[in-house]
From TrEMBL:
Organism for this UniProt entry: Persea americana (Avocado)
Protein name in the entry: Uncharacterized protein
Length: 366
């Protein structure tokens, strides 16, 4: 029995970090995906066999004997476990992950492998299987690689708690946009699906500076506890920016003049959001370098995702000549950055299953 799922990464047009504190944010899926394939073993239900996680792009394989998992995580082998097991199980999960001796250069994977073990055992219990992950998304770059990983894995395993392991206190926006795709307005767990009435062409520049979303999210929360009134005003300003940005991109704009006018408003909102993100302490010198470069071409940019490095969004006006775009990309890549122009607002989560008659269960379960 094989089950496949794929989920997209995302960009946040406005509202990152503030959305963790109740502000509105606007996000869109992008045409970069994480794919999950689960191949169930025929020895399911017995105590032998392995649970194997293959991270294809990195050439890494992690595996655990089913019995080892069973003796270390007995509480997770029942039906879908409530999330309160998560705190109880994290120490045991860490033990199982430490045994894999993840290479030092890839130690950022600790969260992802932990999320995998939690989701897999919470949902599948102690059944042997091979899980193969491939992804177009740069990890730790602000494009929602953790959400795409957890959504695709969760969808294939029917659960949803992995992002908490990786983000600490996720707002849920990344998982939501990776699940539903297209473009959404999101606040306090509530989503509104929105459709853009204007061309939104974005340049994504990856500073390739690694960072940790959980630490960045925690840092903003700590700053908010030190300066509650000031940060509440910052979050409220971001909330207004997101609401205004959402109404601008949905407003009818058929002629070039109105599109250009809307683009200029979007550019100002992006610059304002970037300034507020700097006040939250999540910008970075590499992000500022991208901002300076694109500003030379009178283009507006903002970090997207958790910041601290990672990716920067630049709005490319509909009338901007491709030759100018090429010059901007060439200058950014000469600084060591990686640029990509991707469609935004594409499909969300996709799942498919296939099996041959000898291994398929009547319910189609793994
Ligand atoms: N394909 C994958 N395989 C295994 N683990 C992954 C994969 N993609 C992401 N992860 C896990 O998620 C971590 C990156 O998540 P993080 O939230 O820090 O960055 P991001 O999701 O790319 O950016 P942002 O949250 O700002 O959008 C990785 O270090 C790894 O632990
Ligand atoms: C920084 C943050 O707002 C978005 C990360 O892509 C965290 C979250 O909302 O979970
Ligand atoms: Mg993430």
């Amino acid at each position: 029995m094989e089950t496949r799922a794929r989920a997209p990464g995302k960009i946040i047009l406005s509202g990152e970090h503030a959305v963790v504190h109740g502000a509105t944010a606007v996000a869109a899926s992008i045409d970069l995906y994480t794919d999950v394939l689960i191949r169930s073993s025929t020895s399911s239900g017995t105590d032998d066999g392995l649970v194997e996680l293959q991270l294809k792009d990195m050439g890494l394989v992690f595996s655990w004997p089913v019995q080892r998992i069973k003796e270390t995580l007995p509480e997770l082998g029942t039906a879908l476990s409530p999330s309160f097991f998560l705190s109880e199980s994290m120490k045991s999960i860490a033990t199982l992950v430490e045994e894999q001796n993840i290479p030092e250069a890839k130690i950022g994977l600790f969260g992802g492998v932990s999320a995998f073990l939690f989701l897999y055992t919470s949902i599948q219990g102690f059944k042997p299987a091979t899980v193969v992950i491939t992804s177009d998304l740069p990890m730790g770059s602000g494009l929602g690689s953790s959400a795409a990983f957890c959504v695709a894995l969760s969808a294939a395993l029917l659960a949803y708690s992995g992002e908490k392991i990786i983000h600490g206190k996720p707002s849920g926006i990344d998982n939501t946009v990776s699940t539903f795709g297209n473009m959404i307005m999101f606040r306090l767990g509530e989503l509104t699906r929105i459709t853009s009435n204007m061309p939104l062409r974005m340049l994504i520049t990856n500073t390739k500076v690694g960072r940790n979303t959980k630490a960045l999210v925690a840092g903003v929360s700590e700053r908010a506890s030190r300066h509650p009134d000031a940060m509440a005003a910052v979050f409220s300003a971001v909330d207004s920016i997101s609401k205004e940005l959402s109404s601008i991109i949905q407003s009818p704009a058929s002629d070039e003049l109105s599109i250009t006018e809307n683009e200029e408003k979007l550019e100002e909102l992006m610059e304002m959001n970037q300034g507020l993100l700097q006040s939250m302490g999540v910008s970075h010198s590499s992000i500022e370098a991208v901002l300076r470069t694109t500003l030379k071409y009178k283009l507006a940019s903002k970090l997207t995702g958790a910041g601290g490095g990672g990716c920067v969004l630049t709005l490319l006006p509909a009338l901007l000549a491709d030759a100018v775009v090429d010059k901007v990309i060439a200058e950014l890549e000469s600084c060591g950055f990686q640029c990509l122009v991707t469609a935004i607002g594409g499909k969300g989560l996709e799942i498919s299953s296939s099996c041959n008659s000898s291994t398929c269960h009547p319910s189609g379960e793994i």
